Amino acid sequence: MEICIVVSSDNDYSKHLGVMLYSLLITADSLAKFVIYVLDGGISALNLKRIIRLVNGFGSTIHFIDMDKSVYEKYPLNSHFMQSVYYRISMQNLISPSYSKVIYLDCDMIIQDDITKLWIIDISDNILAAVEDSGFENNDRLFMPNNTLYFNAGVLLINMDKWREADISAKAHNFIHEYPERLLLADQDALNSVICGRWQQLHPRWNQQTKMFRLRPEETTFSEQMLTEALRYPAIIHFTESSKPWHYMNEHPYRDEYFKVLQCTEWRYRFPKIIKYINYNIKPFVKFTYKTLDCLKSVWKSLHL
User: Fold this and answer.
1) CATH match of 2-268 with 1.20.120.330
2) In this structure, what are the phi and psi dihedrals at residue 238, rounded to the nearest 5 degrees?
3) How far, in Å, CA of 80 to CA of 77, rounded?
4) For residue 93, how many other CB atoms are within 10 A of its CB?
5) Residues near 284 by beta carbon (within 8 Å), at least 6 away in sequence
6) What is the pLDDT of residue 275?
7) I want to staple 113 with a disulfide (CB 3.0 to 4.6 A). Which of 38, 71, 188, 235 is the partner?
């Protein structure tokens, strides 16, 4: 079985790309072979070599596609969304037309189940399959009819024939050019607007998003059982918010899973016991200090109203 994976990254995220790819390959069926396309926004020569060794070590193939940054230079950015997040919308013009199906994956995630289980899902009647991104009121802003569901673009099982037929890449680029002020979540907004409901839902296990830990039942179409399964037995852990596992104060419930995989790669920490000591002994003091400062700020504001 040959599976086509598409990812996008710059050098800042190349380590996290490596961690994600290792988790993907180590959990996959041993009979599966992967062809991986990296939409490359400037990964260093050192990190390129590390990624190639990692992928080749599992008997799979990897291609790096140099991206023309000038195409995206005027697209809206912020501290959470870098330019490379937009690269995926161009994939139909970058990967071989022989692929009728691909899986797109973000870098900020850990794969915990065999990705071939996702690959074999039938999406012949839709442009893609994805997991709902619950809790957003996007319909008017993105010209979508009421009750149209909104998907998270971090994990996409894509029917490339229908994607090309609908010319999604060109339409997404046109949306960004025409309505940059409407984009709150970069190309994810553009993709949702132009696809507009022509996608099928995946079980939330395939894209456990950080917000799911605080979702209320009325904010999502997931059943209580599905949400429980996604939280307890995630197939893909997606660190969707601005605070990531590699940030010192991050408290994601699955933060340690990232570091377990990291230590299996060439980006591993040389002195993991020291890092663990810092996290478990010094971090609580830092957290207490921040909370104390916040309390003092609140008191100061109340005294000067």
Assistant:
1) no
2) -110, 115
3) 8
4) 10
5) none
6) 56
7) 235
